[in-house]
Amino acid sequence: MSTVVSADGTAIARTRIGQGAPVVLVDGALCHRQAGPLTGVAEELSTRFTVTTYDRRGRGDSDGAGVVAEDALERELEDLAAVIADAGGPVSLFGMSSGGALALRAVAAGLPVTTVAAYEPPFYTADDQKEQARRYHGELIELIAADRPGDAVALFLDRVGSPPEMIGQMRESPMWPGLAAVAPTLAHDSAIMADADLGAAVPAEPLSTVDVPALVLYGGNSPDWMLDGAQEAAKVLPRGEQRTLDGQDHDVSAAALAPVLADFFSRNA
């Protein structure tokens, strides 16, 4: 592990493995290098690429724990810019879930990226879903401000469809304190998804400026609304394409995902 320093002085932890063209991976909500799906993806890709994973601010070994940054999207973009520079950019970029939305926004913001891919960025297309996202954002901010991190995590888990009994079991599990510790970072993911204003809709204006090959992936066993969001994002992206991974859901297998990413990055190098 090593660290890079973001524009505001925050230390961001990163790990690099493999050899080849540079690839940077971006985690989704609550995840970091040692707790999330991208460890397996990094290992699979490392046979062909030099792969960097990093702890987004407030998670894992990165600084910023317990702090909700003002201008959260801008700070996250600065963190990613520092990681890309350290990787010797330009890079191929991949993001999972809300990390996929961050990856797409990073390219729109002009970060040095040659190709970008996102797996199931949770964009909403229906009006009722967008209103739910706006309510979620308000409730989340209130819980974080009231120093109720466990309730903030439970709210998030409820939003993504976890059954109440599962949330109750998780609250009693050894993993819960770790999740509660990074609860403030959920506000960053909410900012990245533009829950408060767009209601987590596809941010059409910035994404329409992305001028690199872009792949939006969706699991064939995932809910239809995720497919709708993936298809809309792919249509907005000027060089976008959408692909379904049969038999997969949001908890995608690294063995199913990594070969698709490797092929996409290689043929668009």
TrEMBL record:
Q: Which Pfam families match?
A: Abhydrolase_6
Outline the extent of the AB hydrolase-1 domain: 37-252
Superkingdom of the organism of origin = Bacteria
**Protein name (database record):** Pimeloyl-ACP methyl ester carboxylesterase
Which organism was this protein described from?
A: Amycolatopsis roodepoortensis
